[in-house]
Amino acid sequence: SSETQFHSEERELKEKQQERDKDDVDLEALVNDMASLSSYESIYATCGTQHSDSAPLLHSTDGSGLHVAALHSPAHKLRRSQPMHIHAVRRLQEEELQVRPASLPAIPNPFPELCSPSGSPVLSPGSLPQPSEPHIIKVFSEDGVGKVVEVPADMTARDVCQFLVYKNHCLDDNCWSLVEHHSLLGLERCLEDHELVVPVQACMSPESKFLFRKNYAKYEFFRNPLNFFPEQMLAWCQETNGSIPQSQLLQNFLNSSSCPEIQGFLYMKETGRKSWKKLYMFLRRSGLYCSTKGMSKEPRHLQLLSDLEDSNIFTVTMGRKMHNAPTDYQFCIKPGKGRTELKELKMLCAEDEQSRTCWMTAFRLLKFGILLYQNYKSPHQRKTAISNFTTPVRSVSENSLVAMDFSGRTGRVIDNPVEAQSAAMEEGHTWRKRSQRMNVLGRPSPLHPSLLSSVIHRTQLWFHGRIMREESHRMIMQQGQVDGLFLLRDSQSNPKAFVLTLCHHQKIKHFQILPFEEDGQVFFSLDDGSTKFTDLIHLVEFYQLNRGVLPCKLKHPCTMVAL
């Protein structure tokens, strides 16, 4: 019996030792886990509120020095696979992401000397340039056809024009413009080349749109400033009773330290009424002012009408019909930020076209200053550089068209206008003799020039077919009333004749081109038959070189492009 009792006691001791070893393994794993997470004390601090019952673990120890007293209670028994709290896991992941920026490998910076002093010589993914989010704009041509263009947020009006010129194979003469057109308000203006397109579109109403159009007068005031600023409207000319040099005139506008001033009478529409009031106004860098007492310049008599910084100037296209304007030369000042209602517009009206052009040009110069001059010089400075949007095209400017004589061994330029006219007439007679040759059937050849003379001009950009006189006026005014801007159209009074519409000194004039028949051949002439041409193309080319009976040479064709 004593031996049996000894074996049973030994068996009980072995079972207790096994249970103790099992608990020791669990405690060692728990201690290792706690040691590995000792750097994240803040995590366990947040979890401590939920495990506050486990605080009395440290009460008694066994022989190994490990705290085991409270672990034997079934309510606080820990298992090896005890999960961590979900918030703790998330915070661990966030701290790991802060230590390791991204899953992409760090790229060594090949130019560490270009980094800022606080910058790291390693390019992290966050420091790499991120592509801007594209925006959608729709641009319309004069015939109403639109093209959808995807542009980045930093694309300027000039960039959009260059893109459309390249896509539509237009002549890149730096005269194309993006026009902001408000159909409901009857307003439009040409965007400056440096303006960003996306912010402008954000301030437009759903009925407004962008137009792609020529504007030859965009920078014409840099070439001929005296034509844009009459002396009677310049304050310094009135004060000194003298004229100002052309270079000094532009310098006063571009120099921010100078104080140029435009003055004169303007009609202003009264708010909420259809009546107009004639006031004496002053345009300065600080804004547009009107005098409340005659022509007085005293500060107590000046009233601020508009600030230049937060406003844009527009041409009114329907002033007579919508606003009962006293003249046809309306313009308006519209707030630049946000969508504007009709009552917030400053409707103004000038006496003539020259006065309106002076006010609008001075507004642009005083607002943008040197930026306009940089826009004007930018295309000339990059002529030698290859652009992504431009293609090599032949220039048709006045300087590239000269009369030549190829009768000798080498060609020479004809400088004498009389000799150039006689050479043109002689060449015309030679062409007429060639046109009289017949084929063997006794009829003109299919490629005979006499058959083409009546239709070949319809392929030219300056010919606009059967448009009315008012429509030709509108097109000339929209593309800038500069000297030499012209178009040809069918005559409304004579079905066999044509009309040349020409702009000179901001006035639009019309010249009838009559047909003359001689020896079975039809010729066209502007001067009652003194100078005759076989077709309209020869006529236009001649008057591009010679003024003749016209007030000026033909310089800029009035064109319309289809997108």
From TrEMBL:
Residues 259-368 form the PH domain. InterPro entries: BPS-dom, GRB/APBB1IP, Grb10_SH2, PH-like_dom_sf, PH_APBB1IP, PH_domain, RA_dom, SH2. Belongs to the GRB7/10/14 family. Residues 1-23 have a biased composition (Basic and acidic residues). Residues 462-558 form the SH2 domain. Residues 133-217 form the Ras-associating domain. Residues 1-25 are annotated as: Disordered. This is Growth factor receptor-bound protein 10-like. GO terms for molecular function: insulin receptor binding. The keyword Isomerase does not apply. It is found in: Cytoplasm. The keyword Magnesium does not apply. It comes from Sinocyclocheilus anshuiensis. GO terms for biological process: insulin receptor signaling pathway; negative regulation of insulin receptor signaling pathway; negative regulation of Wnt signaling pathway. GO terms for cellular component: cytoplasm.
